[in-house]
């Protein structure tokens, strides 16, 4: 679970972190130190230090708690390549690296988030596995920053926080449309949903596209409220029928 550092000591803490880092190694020229740190967070299941949250970058640890639990319990990313879309502070990307992912690419359309995730990956010693790229804030461009022929074993995304319904639909449609090119044949797209209506929309889209759909965990969707907190995870895979190849279970 995440723990919040009191704001009164944030400035001193951040200066201290920079001083400690400076004593251990030269200042990294590939990192951006120009953004204000608005909060520091300790996440129990992530070892090596605290996460820094830069200005304008959301902190979604509670929303993605279920994803992290599943990643560890079911070893979902061990020895696999991972793409995280809209990474924010880099929490899921860095956690995936610590849980044994062989390669992690994280994207975000916010330059501050890119700087933040890169800083956190470096400070937590995961930047040999985790690379962060600038994506797009356009919901209809979830794969911005990814090469046309680049594919991954796992795709992670928090699908519906702070999005209007039309933008959410655009993101989900584009996300599923891109699985054929960006998800490996045996791979899975793990979509974290904080709204019941998001899951219902995904069910319809998956059915229309003949994509295998599975609700992970023990949530009873019929009895669930509209707000799901922490988020519920949906596993969607490539079509069983396209390219004449069955989708592995």
From TrEMBL:
Listed A to Z, the keywords are:
Methyltransferase, Ribonucleoprotein, Ribosomal protein, Transferase
Pfam families, A to Z? PrmA
Record keywords: Acetylation included?
no
Any one Gene Ontology MF annotation carried by this entry is: methyltransferase activity
Which is one Gene Ontology cellular component term of this protein? ribosome
Q: Which GO BP annotation is one of this protein's?
A: methylation
According to UniProt, the name of this protein is Ribosomal protein L11 methyltransferase
The organism is Roseimaritima multifibrata
The organism's taxonomy opens as: Bacteria, Pseudomonadati, Planctomycetota, Planctomycetia, Pirellulales
């Amino acid at each position: 679970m995440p723990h919040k550092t009191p704001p009164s000591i944030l400035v001193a803490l951040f200066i201290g972190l920079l001083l400690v880092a400076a004593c251990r190694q030269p200042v990294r020229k590939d990192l951006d130190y120009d953004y204000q740190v608005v909060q520091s967070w300790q996440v129990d299941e992530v070892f090596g230090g605290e996460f820094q949250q830069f200005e304008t970058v959301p902190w979604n640890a509670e929303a993605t708690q279920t994803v992290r639990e599943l990643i560890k319990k079911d070893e979902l990313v061990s020895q696999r390549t991972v793409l995280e879309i809209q990474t924010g502070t880099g929490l899921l990307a860095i956690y995936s690296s610590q849980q044994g992912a062989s390669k992690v690419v994280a994207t975000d359309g916010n330059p501050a988030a890119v700087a933040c995730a890169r800083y956190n990956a470096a400070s937590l010693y995961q930047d040999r596995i985790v690379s962060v790229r600038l994506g797009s804030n356009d919901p209809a461009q979830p794969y911005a920053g990814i090469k046309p022929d680049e594919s991954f074993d796992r795709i992670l995304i928090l699908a519906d926080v702070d999005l209007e319904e039309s933008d959410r639909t655009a993101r989900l449609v584009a996300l599923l449309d891109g699985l054929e090119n960006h998800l490996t044949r045996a791979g899975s797209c793990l979509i974290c949903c904080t709204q019941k209506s998001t899951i219902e929309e995904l069910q319809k889209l998956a059915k229309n596209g003949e994509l295998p759909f599975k609700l992970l965990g023990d949530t009873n969707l019929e009895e669930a409220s509209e707000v799901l907190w922490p988020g519920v995870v949906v596993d969607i895979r490539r079509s069983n029928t396209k390219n004449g190849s069955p989708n592995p279970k």
